[in-house]
Amino acid sequence: MPSLGVPELIIILFIILIIFGVGRLPELGGALGRSIREFRKATAEEEPTEQKTGEEQAKTG
C-alpha cells in the first residue's frame, strides 16, 4: 500500500476546505483533538486493568 505524499495531502486538504469551508476548520480541528485525547485516555485507563488481571492470574495459578 503506497504512502501518502505531500501532493496527496494538499489535495485532501483542498477537498476538506471546499466541503466544510474556512470558518468551520477550527471547530473541526478542536473536535478531532478532543476525540483523540479521549481515545488515548480511554486506552490508557484500560491497560492497568489488563496488567492487573495478568498479575492476579500469575498469583493464583
Protein model, in words:
By secondary structure, the chain is mostly helical. It has 2 helices and no strands. The longest helix is centred in the last third of the chain and has 36 residues, at 25-60. It starts with 5 loop residues before the first helix and ends with a helix. The mean pLDDT is 81.
Could you outline the blueprint of secondary structure elements for this entry?
Layout lengths: L5 H15 L4 H36 L1
Question: Which features characterize this protein?
Answer:
61 residues, mainly alpha, 2 helices
Portion in helices? over 70%
> How many H/I helices?
2
Helix and strand string, N-terminal first?
A: HH
Which quaternary structure do these chains form?
Answer: single chain
Class computed from helices, strands and strand pairing: mainly alpha
The first-to-last residue Cα distance is 44 Å
| Beta-strand proportion | under 5%
Query: What do the pLDDT scores average to?
Result: 81
Rg, nearest Å: 20 Å
Outline type: flat
Q: Which ranges are low-confidence, i.e. pLDDT below 50, for 5 or more consecutive residues?
A: none
- Total beta strand runs: 0
**Main beta sheet: strand number and arrangement?**
none
Compose a concise summary of this entry.
The chain has helices at residues 6-20, 25-60. By secondary structure, the chain is mainly alpha-helical.
